[in-house]
Amino acid sequence: MPRLHKYVSRDAHYVLTSIDGQVNTFQLTPAGEGKLAAAGIVPGQNFERAILLDLYRTGDAFSRGGEFPEAVLANQLEMDLASDPHPESAFPTCDDCRSVADLHLALVGRSTDLAARLLCPACRTTPANSADTSVPVSLLTRPLLIRLFEMKSVGTKANNVLRYEALLEAAFALRWDAVRNQRNKTQAALFSEGELGGLDL
Asked: What angle do CA 133, 136, 139 make, to 5 degrees?
C-alpha cells in the first residue's frame, strides 16, 4: 500500500509505494497534499492505491523516476505489505520497462497504422518508439483521448492504454453517478411522503 511521508528538509510530502516489485516515489502537488489531508491521511499512514491512482490521474501525484528522497538515506524506508484491495496492475506503467516515471501516451509506427502505447522517457527515445504524437498522461482526459483516437489512425492499443482508458471511463461514470444521486436526493426532499400522501393523484 502507498505510504505518505514528510520530507525531513522541507515542508512537503511524498508517497512511497511498490509497483511491479519496484519501490516508486511520487511527488505531490500542493493540491494533492491538500486532498490527502482533507481525507485525514497523515505522514506515516498507509492508504489505498486507488487514492494514489486518482491523484496520479489528475496530475496531483507524479513520478520522475530514479529518485529516492532522504528517507532511504536515513534508513526510514518502511513498506506495509498488507494487502491492498486495488491491485498493482491497476496502475499505469511503461509498456516496455514497467516504469511509472513521466509516462506519455505515444502513438508509434506508420501514420496510417499507429500503435498507442504508454512510454517512459528512456523508452520514448528508442528508434522503435519514434512517436507521431506524444502526450503526458497527466494531461489526458476522457474527451482528449476520444478526440485523439478519432483524429489518428490507431490500429492497436497496448494493454496499459486500454487500462488507462477504462480508468478514465470509470472516473467519468462515478461523476455522473454522483450527479444522479444528488438529483434523486433533491427530488426526494421536495416531495416527502407526507406531502405526496395529501395529493389526489
From this structure: 110
Q: Are 66 and 87 in contact (CB under 8 A)?
A: no
pLDDT digits (tens, 9 = 90+) for 41-50: 999 999 988 8
CB-based burial of residue 196 (10 Å sphere; 0-12 exposed, 13-18 middle, 19+ buried)?
exposed
pLDDT band for 39, please (50, 70, 90 cuts): very high
Provide DSSP, 57-107. HTTSEE--SS---HHHHTT------SPPSS-GGGS---TTT---TT-EEEE
Q: Do 121 and 102 meet the contact criterion of CB atoms below 8 Å apart?
A: yes
pTM recorded for the entire structure: 0.67
Rounded distance, CA 32 to CA 55, Å?
A: 6
Kindly tell me the sign of the dihedral angle through the C-alpha atoms of 127, 128, 134, 136.
negative
Residue tagged 494531461 (cell numbers): 139
pLDDT band at 75 (very low <50, low <70, confident <90, very high): very low
